[in-house]
Input
Amino acid sequence: MSEQPVICASEAPQRVAQKYVRDMSFAALVYAVVLVASVFIVRRLDPPQWIAVMLALASAAPALLMMRAYLRRLRGLDEFQRQVQLEAMLASAAIVGFASFTYGFLESFAGFPAIDGALLWVFPAMCFVWGIAQVFVARRYQ
Output
């Protein structure tokens, strides 16, 4: 049976951060490769729809690796840092959710243009707003 190294409290955050960077970098690399290959195949080779569906799903799959990396990081944070992350995540979901909900009404009722591929931007928008919200949430506790 292999023994896990003993990690003192001061080393734990650094190890968690290093593992997060490594895991997230790997996921981002997989995402980039799969996305470039999928776009190339769909745009240049005009595959049948079932292959296009598989390529679309394959392009989204690396986001699961990214979420797994973040969840591992979250579990390595202390209680205060987790609270900041939770509040920032909730603020992000509320802001982006409300914005997309409102724009949907503007499309339906006021004739605003439908944005082609808009759903592709919801998750990146949530991540972006989450990053900004972390600053404001952390500042509130200072």
About this structure: The chain has two domains: 1-77, 78-142. Residues 1-77 form one domain. The first helix runs from residue 12 to 45.
